[in-house]
Amino acid sequence: MTEPSHSPDRAPGRALDRALPRRSDAEQPREFRREITGVTLVAFEWSGEGAPIVLVHGTGFHARVWDQVARRLPGRRVIAVDLRGHGRSSKPEPPYTWSRLGEDVAGLIEGLDLHEVIGVGHSMGGHTMADAATHCPERIASLVLIDPTILDSPTRADRPDRPNQFDFVLRRRNEWASPEEMIDRYAGRFPFSTWRAEVLRDYAVHGLLPSDAGEGYVLACPPPVEAAVYAGRVRPGSELVSELQKLTIPVRVLRARTAAPGEQPPPFAVSGTMPDLAAKMTDGTDFHLTHLGHFIPMEEPEVVARHIIEAADAVG
């Protein structure tokens, strides 16, 4: 097992952003559907060449939250998926175990007959993409895991003393008059206040669906589904790590800043992954982004794009 490098990434995001080429604002991805493991998954494809890049979002989000990353990957084939329960994909009854989400993504990769995949995932999506790689390792060339929720802390199954620990999600506002109302409400609130304005717009515009009531909009990931996804992390992170250690592919782990001694940061202000995750991989590299919070793709999509480009170019 090789020792990973530890590279504090302090590249000024805006300067890097100006240096990166990007797709035209008029270019939109192709939406398509696939029947996978009993559900319909919706995905969005940006046309291009080379190793296919598969993007997996975190809990409560959707495929189009990756738009600003995809726009910074011109000429490359990029596929972003709405996980089950999210976006425009099927929303079956719970449970929403994370192992099932990994099987879904592996099924999509196999169903599309993708090879030499650059697998990218953020937060829960990092866990999901890593899990998917263990199901179809022969199809995955490299992983870019962005503050993945892979850790050995207690899960819902381990904490019977906290049966209502995800009730805060059930209180999330579900009904909106318009995407603009959501943007206005969230723009000044942490953690959305740390996001790029264009990412917040993508989140709102594509994260709402017309209400069945005939007026207004509702969240594309309903609060009960989001709560069920949070509750679905029942597999210890150590089990997934054991499976990942069998892979010989390069794995990049992008980690957000860690809390300072004595600091009590709000949720999502600091990293949500085990600090030695890359060190546990056969070919792992750790990038500690000490100037960013958990929502790395939303705060500096160009930094994520640069890491994806480097991972894809290394594949050839």
Mind explaining what this structure looks like?
The chain is built from 11 helices and 11 strands. By secondary structure, it is α/β, with parallel strands linked by helices. The chain has one domain: Rossmann fold, CATH 3.40.50. The strands form 2 sheets. The chain has an 8-stranded mixed sheet, with helices on both faces. Strands 7-9-8 form a 3-stranded antiparallel sheet. Strand 5, helix 4 and strand 6 form a beta-alpha-beta unit. Helix 3 packs across helix 4 and helix 6 crosses helix 7. The longest helix has 15 residues. The N terminus is likely disordered.
What would the keywords be for this entry?
single chain; globular; 3-stranded antiparallel sheet; 8-stranded mixed sheet; 11 strands; 11 helices; about 30% helix; disordered N terminus; about 325 residues; Rossmann fold; alpha/beta; about 20% strand
CATH architecture: 3-Layer(aba) Sandwich
Q: Order of strands across the biggest sheet?
A: 1-2-4-3-5-6-10-11
Q: Count structural domains.
A: 1
Largest sheet: 8 strands, mixed
| CATH topology call | Rossmann fold
Radius of gyration: 18 Å
State the name of the first-level CATH class.
Alpha Beta
- Summing up helix and strand content along with how strands pair, one would put the structural category as alpha/beta
The tally of beta strands, per DSSP, is 11
Weakly predicted, low-confidence segments: 1-11, 156-161
Question: What is the helical fraction, as a range of percent?
Answer: 25-40%
Proportion of residues in β-strands: 15-25%
